[in-house]
Amino acid sequence: MAAPVKRMPRRHPYRVLVAAVLSTRTQDPVTTAASRRLFRVAPNPLALSRLRPERIRRLVYPVGFYRTKARILPRLGRMLLERWGGRVPATLPELLSLPGVGRKVANIVITQAFGQPAIAVDTHVQRVSNRLGLVRTRRPEQTESALTQLLPRRLWAEWNPLLVALGQTSCRPIRPLCPTCPVRRWCMRRGVNP
To answer: What confidence tens digit (pLDDT) does each residue in 70-108 have?
Structure first.
């Protein structure tokens, strides 16, 4: 089964940022469709800053927390214009200062938009890294820190897409498909009932 994980286009930092904000707590196919609808109307930070939250709600529904995201996105567009002249910042501290941007979103932007090494930890990366026995962590920040010490930098950017694909197909949260998992021989199966 092919994983529905979708890579965002490189060198389009604005699109990567907005799509990553929309992606939180949302499945990839829903994020892709919502992003397309939004980008038709708001292809840049200026257009996004001028949209009313009601319009954004209609465009991005049914992404998770669509009402909150609809309030945040015009502010995000305004901040990009006011602080960075409409450009997306490329550093973790600057990205974290934007509304709706946490470490996962910031690290996705750093890797996908700017091609820099970072590890974005979402629910799949958290679960699969622990099941494999690579880390023993409870929070994404702990997992990110542990993985950055464990993995070579050249693998950081690829870790999220690889583990998202594995988490969506084999290493599912409930009833993982361990017998057919491509990495079963290296997996410690932590937290998996026999």
So the answer is: 999 999 999 999 999 999 999 999 999 999 999 999 999
Find, among 162, 157, 66, 164, the residue nearest to 123 by Cα.
164
Annotated ligand binding at 181? The verdict is: yes
Our separate counts of H helices and E strands in the chain read: 10, 0
What is the C-alpha radius of gyration for the chain, rounded to an integer number of angstroms?
17
pTM for this model (two decimals): 0.90
Domains of the chain and CATH, by start? 13-112 (1.10.340.30), 123-186 (1.10.1670.10)
- 24 near 105, Cβ under 8 Å? yes
pLDDT, tens digit (0-9, with 9 covering 90-100), for 43-56:
999 999 999 999 99
Q: Is 32 annotated as a binding residue?
A: no
Q: Is the four-CA dihedral 87, 121, 29, 23 of positive or negative sign? A: negative
What's the DSSP call for residue 8?
A: P
Is 178 marked as a binding-site residue?
yes
Q: Are the beta carbons of 148 and 134 closer than 8 angstroms?
A: no
CB within 8 A of 26, min separation 6: which ones? 34, 63, 64
pLDDT of 162-181, one tens digit each? 999 999 999 999 999 999 99
Q: Evaluate whether 167 touches 182 at the Cβ level (below 8 Å).
A: no
